[in-house]
Every structure is written in C-alpha cells, then in structure tokens.
Amino acid sequence: MSEIFHFLGQHIEAIYILALSIFLGIEVISNVPAVLHTPLMSGANAIHGVVIIGAIIVMGQADPQNYLALALGFIAVVLGTLNVVGGFVVTDRMLEMFKKKDKK
Predict the structure, then answer these.
(1) How far apart, in whole angstroms, are the C-alpha atoms of residue 78 and residue 20?
(2) Hey, what long-range contacts does 15-19 have (CB within 8 A, 24 or more apart)?
(3) Which residues contact 48 (CB under 8 A, 6 or more apart)?
(4) How many other β-carbons are positioned within 10 Å of the β-carbon of residue 55?
(5) How many Å apart are CA 38 and CA 46, to the nearest integer?
(6) In sequence order, which ranges of the chain are alpha helices (DSSP H)?
(7) Which SS3 state, helix, strand or coil, does residue 104 take?
(8) How far apart are CA 78 and CA 67, in angstroms?
(9) pLDDT tens-digit map of 56-73
(10) pLDDT value at 11 more than 70
(11) 45: exposed, middle or buried (C-beta count within 10 Å: 0-12, 13-18, 19+)?
(12) DSSP, res 65
C-alpha cells in the first residue's frame, strides 16, 4: 500500500492533469449540440489514422520471431483501418443528406 502512495506522490502533477482533462472533456462533450455530435465523432474516427501509423511502426520494430507482437500489430492495423473507413463512410452519408435531390 505504501508503494501506491509513493507512486501517487511522485506523479501528483500528472494525476491533477488527468483529473482536469476528464472534467474538461465531460464539460465540452456535454455542451455539444446533438446535431454536431455525429460529425465530430466521424472526424475523430478519421483521426485514428495515427493508430495505423503507430501499429505499422511497432510491427516494423518487432522481432520477426515475436509472433504475439506481429499478430497484435496486424490486428491494430486492421481495426484502425476499419475505424478510419467507417468515419469517412459516416461523414459521406451525412453529407449526402444535405445535397439537393434532383427532380425527375
């Protein structure tokens, strides 16, 4: 138990920043209108391309015999790609709703 208190004492600034960011994030998200929530989430999914880049870098640095790291990296690339593509699909569908429909 004393090890936990020692860790908390050494990293108190990081804990304060984490707590502040949680409260700030809740406040910002709760004040976003419902109309803007979906576009913001689809944009956030598209930003997850960083996960793909990170997974590719980790897979490139992994030992060729470390099958666990390679498998997890591959899964991260696949799931990150699905997330990015899904974000763009949602954004495209939302933009289609605002286009004028042609009368036949």
Answers:
(1) 33
(2) none
(3) 80, 83, 84, 87
(4) 20
(5) 12
(6) 2-10, 12-30, 34-47, 49-61, 67-97
(7) coil
(8) 16
(9) 998 899 899 999 989 988
(10) yes
(11) buried
(12) T
Q: How many CB atoms lie within 10 A of CB 73?
A: 20
User: How far apart are alpha carbons 46 and 52 in whole angstroms?
Assistant: 11
pLDDT of residue 90: 78
User: What does residue 68 show for φ and ψ, rounded to 5 degrees?
Assistant: -65, -45
Please, what's the b/e burial string for 17-32 (b: 16 or more CB within 10 A of its CB; e: otherwise)?
Answer: eeeeeeeeeeeeeeee
Contact indicator for 48, 26 with CB cutoff of 8 Å: no
Encoded tokens for 95? 């933009």
